[in-house]
């Protein structure tokens, strides 16, 4: 052997336990989305590079896995889904009742420095509501985001959803005489304020004739500065979700395409990155696809949330339970008499046809060893096929009890015991 | 607007119905795998190009989406999973009980001419049993492959699994004095026989001093030419799956790494490509990862099987049913009195917390229109919140019946009606 192959830096192998953890998060994303009447869609992993430069400018190329394909096309592994969504929605928006409630779960790629909570590939949940301008749409989306967290086992102790209205800042900037690019630059300053030294912020604001005090005053005010924001907050209170929500006008979101309500979910006390974020983007579908389709949406990546689950007791318990359940079979078939192999195989087929998860020995092994394997595997029951066949023994491996039944009655007996299938 | 963006050639957009169809196939793959005690894993979408050239030679590069990344690494979008599996299994084989029963569902990329049943991207189910040389392992895998087809609704009318043993050919070739590369070249001739004019095959075989008649005689013989093949067939008969299986020594599989039993699933009568294929590859993990781990596995792509489902009545019915169920909510909340919005939102939250899929109006609309929307959406029930609140009406939209209950009793009433959650 020359080289031993390794996974590329920033990429991940998902061994079975990792994959079960990934699937658990996917299942929660899917389950909660469906409760809100959202349907799943997916776009291609590879898109024309221009789809991203159109929206975000040429500098995005530095973060892209981009290349020239064998047909001389400039293509990129997708760094995000929103441009694809805009392309797809614009192309076929007439085929769908509005509002469109769409979600997606897929993988994305960004060539950046490998760091905690962010790899060069990651999975992301995207959830968008298209064709509705009412504040109730923003609230519906925010409620869904909160319910994702609740379904994972997080409570008001663990996270807050901070909501803001970019338009409050646009109106503020306009009142100070700014317009166009000036407003965009001003929003960038607000976005970076928390991570910028105070003196620097003061200086940057000074260029626009705005004081840090005036900015702080707006940040300190509540939902009353924006009727839309007030409506969103009231809507969430009516749902009983008010305790999860905090008005924080310091949130403006970096991306230029947001046009109204914006929000982010933050953990409390773990100091991680934002867990999810999104907002209203009423002009993007027009920009990408030439169709006027107002929309709001948000995204949640798999890496930060999984780190947070692992660091929090109840969410971690639920995850571990899901991982254990994923790997365990319902029935470990123990062959106690090798002359009964044909009967054991036929029985395995019957159980599998009935929907049970069944493991069976592929080579002869001592009965004691077969039981050891069954127990260490986490199997729920062992069914022993031996010389008494067609009578078989069912062992409940957790309770360590044994019952006997006819092979023909085994499906019913197992259904009673396992309470499912 | 300058350009309208389009999906790249050979790539697919999955609009909600397409995505539901995809997920239905994924669910069947997952469900049946779990019945066989298999656990899911996943590897990275991007791997070092050498991982593929090591196994398949430099010419594979012509079919790869390969490029140089920003860190000067030669990388490729994965064209198949087996090399990644071999890498992963070799790296951590000590952590897993043998045999390892692993499956994976993911996307793959090949730069080839776009044609029916094959795009430049496709999803593929991979299923492998590692660490077991017994013929019972090959049979277990083949049984799983057959059960995938059965679970989709296919019967003996629709498909056959053709099974063969490459070693029967190796022994034949050896008896004719061939060895090493000669055997490999000979196997290539057998693999391509069906698609090659008879005279050409005769000529190619002649080089090795072998007659077409001798080859046809071996193809015409049955499982008795290989004890392992006979054991696999008997095992499948004991499971009651004999009718799905056909010994066909004409199957040798193109890839050089197979070392024993090989098999393919073919449709009957539709003339499509092979639906699935695989076999034993006892040396590949050693080649890629330097660890002696005998294995067998198979793969099934999403495109041919989906075409076949669409072309076959019962499988198509199951698929359509799954698509319809995917898009429908349990409850369409109808707001008949706008002063009850807070109550309706609170009720929606309660129902969603209980696991129901609920749609609700985001803007005021006439009651008649809300009902029309509910019905055209395929919703199962409509729940009317009106001036009688806290009494609500439940309409069963299929049966067109109405019942009334207290809002506080709604979760129970809906569970009775929907028979689930």
Describe the protein's architecture and organization.
The structure is a homodimer of 421-residue chains. Chain A has 421 residues and is an alpha+beta fold. In chain A, 41% of the residues lie in helices and 20% in strands. The first copy, chain A, has helices at 16-35, 50-56, 82-92, 135-152, 166-175, 181-192, 198-207, 212-220, 227-238, 284-289, 302-310, 313-327, 341-353, 367-377, 410-418, and strands at 39-40, 46-48, 66-68, 74-77, 100-109, 121-130, 159-165, 245-247, 261-267, 276-280, 295-301, 331-335, 358-359, 381-385, 391-396, 401-406. The longest helix of chain A has 20 residues, at 16-35. The first copy, chain A, starts with 15 loop residues before the first helix and ends with a helix. At the A-B interface, helix 1, strand 1, strand 2, helix 2 and helix 3 of A face helix 1, strand 1, strand 2, helix 2 and helix 3 of B.
Describe the secondary structure blueprint for this structure:
Two copies of one chain form a homodimer.
Chain A: H1 16-35, E1 39-40, E2 46-48, H2 50-56, E3 66-68, E4 74-77, H3 82-92, E5 100-109, E6 121-130, H4 135-152, E7 159-165, H5 166-175, H6 181-192, H7 198-207, H8 212-220, H9 227-238, E8 245-247, E9 261-267, E10 276-280, H10 284-289, E11 295-301, H11 302-310, H12 313-327, E12 331-335, H13 341-353, E13 358-359, H14 367-377, E14 381-385, E15 391-396, E16 401-406, H15 410-418
Parallel strand pairs in A: 1-5, 7-8, 12-13, 12-14
Antiparallel strand pairs in A: 2-4, 3-4, 5-6, 6-11, 7-9, 9-10, 10-11, 14-15, 15-16
């Amino acid at each position: 052997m020359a080289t031993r192959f390794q996974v590329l830096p920033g990429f991940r192998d998902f061994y079975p336990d990792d994959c079960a953890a990934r699937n658990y998060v996917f299942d929660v994303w899917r389950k909660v989305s469906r409760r809100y009447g959202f349907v799943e869609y997916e776009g291609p992993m590879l898109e024309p590079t221009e789809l991203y430069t159109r929206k975000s400018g040429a500098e995005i190329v530095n973060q892209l896995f981009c290349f020239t394909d064998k047909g001389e096309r400039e293509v990129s592994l997708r760094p995000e889904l929103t441009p694809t969504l805009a392309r797809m929605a614009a192309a076929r928006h007439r085929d769908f009742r509005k509002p469109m409630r769409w979600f997606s779960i897929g993988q994305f790629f960004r060539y950046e420095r490998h760091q905690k909570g962010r790899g060069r590939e990651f999975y992301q949940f995207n959830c968008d509501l298209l064709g509705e301008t009412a504040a109730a749409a923003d609230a519906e989306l925010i409620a869904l985001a909160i319910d994702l967290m609740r379904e994972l086992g997080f409570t008001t102790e663990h996270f807050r959803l901070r909501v803001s209205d970019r338009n409050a800042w646009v109106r503020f900037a306009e009142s100070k005489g700014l317009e166009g690019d000036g407003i965009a630059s001003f929003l960038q300053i607000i976005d970076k304020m928390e991570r910028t030294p105070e003196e620097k912020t003061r200086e940057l604001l000074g260029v626009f004739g705005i004081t840090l005090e005036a900015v702080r005053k707006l940040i300190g005010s509540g939902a009353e500065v924006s009727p839309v924001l007030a409506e969103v907050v009231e809507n969430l209170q009516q749902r009983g979700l008010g305790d999860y929500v905090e008005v924080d006008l310091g949130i403006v979101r970096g991306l230029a395409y947001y046009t109204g309500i914006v929000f982010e979910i933050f953990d409390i006390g773990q100091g991680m990155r934002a867990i999810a974020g999104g907002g209203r983007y009423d002009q993007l579908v027009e920009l990408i696809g030439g169709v006027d389709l107002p929309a709001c949406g948000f995204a949640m990546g798999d890496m930060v949330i999984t780190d947070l689950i692992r660091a929090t007791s109840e969410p971690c318990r639920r995850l571990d339970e899901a991982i254990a359940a994923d790997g365990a079979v319902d029935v470990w078939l123990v062959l106690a008499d090798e002359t009964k192999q044909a009967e054991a195989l036929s029985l395995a087929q019957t159980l599998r046809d009935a929907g049970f998860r069944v493991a069976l020995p592929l080579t002869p092994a001592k009965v004691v060893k077969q039981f050891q394997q069954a127990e260490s595997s986490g199997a729920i029951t062992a069914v022993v096929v031996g010389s008494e066949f067609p009578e078989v023994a069912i062992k409940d491996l957790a309770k360590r009890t044994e019952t006997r039944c006819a092979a023909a009655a085994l499906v019913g007996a197992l259904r009673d015991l396992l309470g499912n299938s």
